[in-house]
Amino acid sequence: MPTSPRSWLYRLYDRRIAAELEPSGRLPRHIGVITDGNRRWAKEFGTTTEDGHRMGAQRIVELIDWCDELGIEVVTLYVLSKENLQRSAEEVRILGTIIGDMVDDIARRDGSEVRLVGDLTLLPDELRARLATAAEASTAGDRARIRVNIAAGYGGRQEIVAAVRELLQDSLEEGRSLEQAIESVTEEGISEHLYTKGLPDPDLIIRSSGEQRLSGFLIWQSAYTEFYFCEAYWPAFRRTDFLRALRAYAERNRRYGK
């Protein structure tokens, strides 16, 4: 199939940005992505909400390929919030099927480790079982080149509350007094009980669709994260948009509050 001049120019532009990134050596280890705008994309293009979600899922799988090519170690994807689960039963069912198919595709990639982050008890039983099976079947441990966190049934405040409760419960089970349990509530203690425990905090969070807010995504972990907001709806998010986000990140001076 012949390549359009526009597609050829985009590939040329992508190579140029990638060449600019390589000498800098300042690629993020961990990227968080808020994949926003599927429904608005579908409405604008006169197609169904289901088509929008399917196109968004396809773009996520492509994103994992882009990250793997560049050696990015961790990607956390905000694919299903607690609020999303309050949509109509039919849309939640469709979302569950699409997310399940997408996570199966990611888990089958050689070198991809899938990890679930969120309150899985909030998910429909069928989706919870599918995600758990995919995660178990994915590449594990040292054999993984890229770790993919699937944030489903996720809420940032809920994550912090759950971490504090688990921290206090662990202290009490170890026979500590209430005063000692309270003393264990430190930044380090909470971090060790988050859904993302054992992983580096995100260096960069990307949000599509022009919205400029976190919507509860990784609110503890993102204290010193860089943010990149893109106007494109998620199904229209291109490799060019991704490389621009990485270039913007590489150009920033991260001071970590100092």
Descriptive keywords:
258 residues, alpha/beta, Undecaprenyl pyrophosphate synthetase, six-stranded parallel β-sheet, 9 helices, 14% strand, globular
In short:
This protein has helices spanning 5-24, 38-44, 49-70, 89-108, 125-137, 156-173, 178-183, 187-191, 239-251; strands at residues 30-34, 74-81, 112-117, 146-154, 204-207, 226-229.
Task: Give a written overview of the molecule.
This protein has 258 residues and is of the alpha/beta class. It has a domain at 28-154 and 200-251: 3-Layer(aba) Sandwich (Undecaprenyl pyrophosphate synthetase). It is 48% helix and 14% strand. The protein has helices at 5-24, 38-44, 49-70, 89-108, 125-137, 156-173, 178-183, 187-191, 239-251, and strands at residues 30-34, 74-81, 112-117, 146-154, 204-207, 226-229. It has a 6-stranded parallel beta sheet, sandwiched between helices. β3 (112-117), α5 and β4 form a beta-alpha-beta unit. The longest helix is centred in the first third of the chain and has 22 residues, at 49-70. It is globular, with a radius of gyration of 19 Å. The mean pLDDT is 92.
